[in-house]
Specification:
Layout (H helix, E strand, L loop, with lengths): L1 E3 L4 E4 L2 E11 L5 E2 L3 E3 L2 H8 L2 E7 L4 H10 L5 E6 L8 H16 L3 E5 L3 H9 L16 H15 L3 E4 L7 H17 L5 E6 L10 H26 L14 E4 H5 L3 E2 L4 H15 L5 H6 L1 E7 L11 H16 L6 H13 L14 E2 L7 H11 L4 E3 L4
Parallel strand pairs: 3-13, 6-7, 6-9, 7-8, 10-13
Antiparallel strand pairs: 1-3, 1-5, 2-3, 4-5, 8-15, 9-11, 10-11, 12-14
Helix pairs in contact: 1-6, 2-3, 2-6, 4-13, 5-13, 7-11, 11-12
The structure holds guanosine-5'-diphosphate and cobalt (II) ion.
Guanosine-5'-diphosphate (GDP) binds next to β6, β7 and α5.
Length: about 400
């Protein structure tokens, strides 16, 4: 792969945010210059073999999940965390059939589990990670909760990198590109604490509804604007550095993923940036090793367009509210930021009063969790965990 190297980065304490990078060629010979990096196939394969791909899924078209699985590069383990419907129309069972068939035909290592598996509830409780549980002791609904389930299982594999891809992708091979771009980011990264976030130039709509495309673009634009404002009010310099506030598709080194906190609802991605800035720019973090090594954030623009399922206006509303709430309630926000957020939300008829802007629940980092214990308990109590490794 031939990748543009970032010419510019902005530094906030020990957090370094790189400007957007473009892919110049999908395949390339090894090459190195101050402005470009040619990554060889071997270098790429090496990182891919140390990566776990987590796919959160909830009631998506089975065709889409199937396509996504087939596009994962060789070498990466796959973990599917499903919160799909059970009961009479058991979508989870169909997903599990797809996963088993995929493994039988390809031999690709893959794990699938249901988010509401009672074993998961028991295992998180035993491991002391109660924030993810509801009153009945089950893992709560939500993408962030699914991501944490995936992360915990990924940590158990001992692999170094973890990435997320959505299951509702209409262009299977774009997933292959995403995962290679994550690997490329890790290859150029200088620290064991790094994150790669994807940016799309094109986001064509799936359904006829033209408005959907416009609004989707608008959410990202608004989130980015406020994240940049949050930074600018502290530095005194206007910035545009953040272009991937709502980047659903992203990857982290396991070292960074372990110390990351996760905002629930539809705010997990913007919150990652807010959290890193709170913790490592102005904050007194307990994660000294990360602070000493430095944290890097890469933003890479894909060649493929992003075409995913249209989830409707309510979804967009939730996303904007969730995203702006994480900024509004950030320790870094001041009156100016808060006032502008409220104005934006009122202008878009999202809320009428301040008290309608709910604070997002946050799941703490999994760093302190006893993962060995978690896995031991899970293996004893799980009803849905299916781990298909190479030898099976
Ligand atoms: P967007 O693409 O970020 O606007 O949001 P989506 O609704 O497409 O969600 C992203 C991914 O998370 C998709 O693959 C969803 O199926 C999946 N997802 C949504 N809610 C949940 C959930 O509660 N649990 C799990 N495990 N996955 C979920
Ligand atoms: Co989607």
């Amino acid at each position: 792969m031939l990748l543009e190297l970032p010419k510019h980065a902005e530094i906030f304490g020990c957090v370094k945010i790189h400007e957007i990078q473009k892919v110049l060629k999908f395949e390339s010979r090894p090459f190195e210059s101050p402005l470009l990096k040619g990554i060889s196939k071997d270098e790429m394969d090496d990182v891919l073999s140390r990566m776990v791909v987590i796919i959160p899924v909830k009631d998506e078209k089975l065709h889409l999940l199937d396509g996504v699985l087939r596009s994962v590069p060789i070498g990466c383990d796959i973990i599917v965390v499903s919160n799909s419907q059970r009961g009479e129309n058991d979508i989870f069972r169909m997903e599990r059939d797809i996963v088993s068939n995929f493994h039988r035909v390809t031999g690709h290592p893959i794990t699938i589990i249901h988010q509401k598996d009672p074993g998961l509830g028991i295992a998180f409780k035993e491991a002391g990670y109660n924030a993810i549980l509801d009153d009945a002791g089950f893992v709560r609904n939500g993408k962030a909760e699914g991501m944490v389930v995936g992360l915990t299982l990924a940590k158990n594999t001992g692999k170094e990198y973890v990435c997320f891809v959505d299951a509702d992708n209409y262009i299977p091979c774009s997933v292959n590109e995403y995962i290679r771009l994550y690997a490329a980011g890790f290859i150029i990264s200088q620290t064991p604490y790094s994150m790669v976030r994807l940016h799309w130039r094109y986001k064509p709509k799936v359904m006829e509804d033209r408005l959907y495309f416009k609004k989707w673009g608008r959410v990202s634009e608004i989130t980015n604007r406020f994240l940049n404002l949050l930074i600018s009010i502290h530095t005194g310099f206007e910035t545009n550095i953040i272009k991937t506030g709502n980047a659903g598709e992203h990857a982290m080194t396991m070292k960074l993923a372990e110390i990351m906190a996760h905002s629930t609802g539809y705010s997990v991605e913007p919150y990652q940036l807010v959290y890193l800035l709170e913790e490592f720019w102005k904050g007194e973090t307990e994660f000294r090793e990360a602070m000493n090594s430095g944290i890097e954030i890469y933003q890479i623009e894909t060649l493929n367009p992003h075409v995913h399922e249209d989830k409707g206006d309510e979804h967009i509303r939730e996303m904007l509210l969730g995203s702006l709430s994480t900024i509004y309630y950030s320790k870094l926000a001041n009156d100016t930021v808060r006032k502008e957020i409220l104005e934006e939300l009122k202008k878009n008829e999202m809320i009428k009063r301040e008290r309608e802007l709910k604070k997002n629940r946050v799941l703490p980092p999994i760093a302190k969790m006893n993962v060995e214990k978690f896995v031991e308990v899970l293996l004893n109590h799980s009803e849905t965990l299916t781990m298909l490794s190479k030898e099976d």
